[in-house]
Write a structure and sequence with these properties.
It is a single chain. This protein is α/β, with parallel strands linked by helices. The chain is built from 12 helices and 15 strands. Strands 1-6-5-2-4-3 form a 6-stranded mixed β-sheet, with helices on both faces. Helix 3 runs parallel beside helix 4 and helix 8 packs antiparallel against helix 10. The protein is elongated.
């Protein structure tokens, strides 16, 4: 999809569709006002008839407009003007994208970037516009034998900027938005792929291809390499799988050679059957998503490279499956991590902290300025404190990781007090 900036008068702009906003009570946004005047107040007449009341997320598509060059006008409800905040803006963008998908328009001109959002500038609004549109257009159909037939695809998005002096800043915001959106799409693609496709070897190959395209350094440590490093916790998880484990390292060198890097560590369990503590069969197919931490790191590295961030960024992914097998680790086994600590494994389905413990120790060699690990460990949180509080804790951990760069999952950190009769699934022996 292509994004371009245009500052022409809306009445003269040749486009398949113009997207403009309407607040509750029928108050038109500046672009809607301009078009209403240019087409003989067709917009006002539609609002008077009650075709649109401006409720947030509602839409109205007008066609056969007079005296203007656009083929369609898509009006999007914005809700009360005094309550128009970030979430309102996102809701309007998503509603517009959903409707555009049904029109068959090949291009559309968005005027929603002009809307005032408290505390946010025009660059933020344009960046969020790009993210919302690309998110709304995302589909993964390549594994289907017969992909669904769709209308003509939306190919071009025009971001309307009334003041041409702001065109350069708008283009820069578009570039940032596209880079982030492409990174998100890559993470989604990897996460959505089934476990028989997205294996540790597949992730390693994707890293090589990504490095070749974007020019960053990629190193793949094979099983024998991790054995020499003493990564026995990581290897213990991999023992039950026929897929060879890979430790994937990607490095974006955008900062000074001696600058401490930002290090991202992503859990890459490409399928988590639970090991000998096997999961229930219900919804086990969703365990392909246990590598979404790794997928997030892939996306972040791609975005960093596309934006040419002036930072050194290192992505580390311990990739393996967690499967039951005659060679798999057993509850009660004791392994020695790369850091030299011995760990008793009480639950083989707590593999995340094992692979991450070695990966985080490996990350220390880069002397990071910031270290963030990304993992899907919600089950452990629910077990510890219950479902009701889990979401709040997850949000707090994400905030801490993003703002402070601290690991929230490293084996050996102090655990909450044990409830009577509860044994934590992984503990250090001193």
């Amino acid at each position: 999809m292509e994004f371009i900036v245009n500052g022409d008068h809306l009445g003269q702009l040749r486009t398949a569709c113009v997207v403009a906003g309407v607040y509750e009570g029928g108050k038109l946004s500046p672009s809607a006002l301009e078009l209403d005047a240019a087409c003989g107040h067709v917009v006002t007449q539609a609002l008077t008839r009650g075709d649109l009341d401006g409720e947030i997320g509602t839409t109205l598509l007008l066609t056969n407009l007079r005296e203007v060059a656009c083929e369609r006008l898509l009006l999007v409800g914005l809700g009360p003007e005094g309550e128009f905040v970030e979430s309102s803006y996102h809701a309007a963008l998503c509603a517009a994208t959903r409707t555009l998908r049904t029109t068959g328009a090949r291009d559309a001109t968005f005027c929603l970037g002009e809307l005032a959002v408290n505390g946010r500038d025009a660059a933020w609004r344009i960046e969020q516009l790009v993210l919302a549109v690309m998110d709304g257009m995302y589909r993964l159909d390549k594994l289907k034998s017969e992909p669904p037939k769709q209308r003509r695809a939306l190919e071009t998005i025009v971001v309307h900027v009334a003041d041409r002096a702001n065109a350069s800043a708008a283009k820069a915001a578009i570039d940032r938005g596209v880079a982030i959106a492409e990174g998100i799409a890559l993470a989604k693609d990897l996460g959505n792929l089934p476990g028989n496709v997205c294996t540790p070897a597949y992730l390693a190959q994707q890293a090589r291809e990504l490095g070749s395209v974007h020019g960053f350094e990629v190193t793949i440590l094979e099983e024998q390499d991790t054995e020499k490093l003493g990564m026995n916790a990581f290897l213990a998880v991999a023992r039950g799988s026929r897929q060879s484990p890979k430790l994937i390292v990607m490095q974006h060198h955008g900062g000074a050679p001696d600058a401490a890097p930002v290090v991202l560590v992503g859990k890459g369990i490409t399928f988590d059957a639970g090991g000998l503590n096997i999961k229930s069969s219900s919804d086990m197919e969703q365990m392909k998503f246990d590598m979404c931490g790794a997928a997030s790191v892939f996306g972040a590295l791609q975005a960093a490279a596309m934006m040419k961030l002036p930072l050194n960024v290192v992505g580390i992914i311990p990739a393996t499956e967690n499967m039951p097998d005659g060679n798999a680790i057993k509850p009660g086994d004791v392994v020695t991590t790369m850091s030299g600590q011995t760990v008793e494994i009480l639950d083989t389905d707590s593999e995340g902290r094992l692979v991450l413990s070695d990966a985080l120790t490996y990350a220390e060699r880069y002397k990071p300025a910031v270290l963030v690990d990304v993992a899907t460990l919600t089950g452990a949180i629910v077990s510890a404190i219950g479902l009701a509080k889990a979401a709040a804790v997850i949000a707090a951990l994400i905030f801490m990781a993003s703002s402070m760069g601290r690991s929230s999952d490293r084996c050996g950190l102090p655990l909450p007090p044990q409830a009577p009769g509860r044994r934590w699934p992984c503990r250090n022996w001193w």
